[in-house]
Write a structure and sequence with these properties.
Blueprint (H helix, E strand, L loop, with lengths): L1 H22 L5 H21 L5 H23 L6 H20 L3 H19 L1
């Protein structure tokens, strides 16, 4: 469930980033309110995910998803430029996010493994 929270937090990050643009420095009321709500929801979900996922992995994935999502949304909806190097670095960033996911261990998984190790050690002593 923590990974779902983190994924939703990343999507909401893209939303509040766009909200910042359209709030014009928090001078336009409706986009400002939407931005603050999306920001609060995003950070809530991000915090929930860190109960299970390592902080470094969670933060890198949260900001990485937000970055990639915002760049892609900017290309799609704001006519931002697309060139080889921009796409190359997006792919590189996604590779790093996937790599972190593959090598990270959830906190509950680690405590479960530690419990099994403790049980084996106790059995060996008996």
């Amino acid at each position: 469930m923590a990974w779902i929270y983190l994924l939703m937090a990343g999507f909401l990050e893209v939303g509040w980033t766009f909200g910042l643009k359209y709030s014009e420095g928090f001078t336009v009321l409706v986009p400002s309110i939407i931005t603050v709500v999306l920001l609060a929801a995003s950070f809530y979900l991000f915090a929930k995910s860190m109960q299970i996922i390592e902080i470094g992995t969670a933060y890198a994935m949260f900001t990485g998803m937000g970055t990639v999502g915002t760049v892609i949304a900017g290309i799609m909806f704001l006519d931002e430029p697309v060139d080889f190097w921009r796409m190359f670095f997006i792919v590189l960033l996604i590779s790093g996010i996937v790599g972190l996911k593959l090598v990270s261990k959830d906190k509950k998984e680690e405590s479960s493994q530690q419990t099994k190790t403790d049980q084996i050690t106790q059995q060996e002593r008996a």
